[in-house]
Amino acid sequence: MKRIIMILTAIVLLLTIGLASAKDYEITKKSGDYTVQIKIDKNPPITGENKMDIAIKDTAGNNVTDATVDINYGMPAMPGMGAMNYKTTAGLKGDRYLATINFSMAGPSYINIKITRAGKSQSVKLNVDVK
Asked: What CATH number does the domain containing 66 carry?
């Protein structure tokens, strides 16, 4: 009996450590003259609120802090269900842009990030599987 309790305790401990050290969803993409690093606080993203952190660097490697960052996200249309489309704007905090995206249901979803600076726009597109 003591041995079973020790084994169960060890399993619970290992699972707790594994979940505690889970990393954010991270991806880096190029968009025109920009390198865009995107982090979402949950990996994989989940139904409900997800915090998004976006860092933008120019060709010289300098942080871009004078852009407008708009985010369009949602789920494409499926049989018997129309497309879901949501929009938000990321606010600048320090040298990063922060936003909260709220997925309404699990499944394949898209995130389109539009960066507008000095009258020019660049876009970054990614697909995620929301759990």
From this structure: 2.60.40.1930
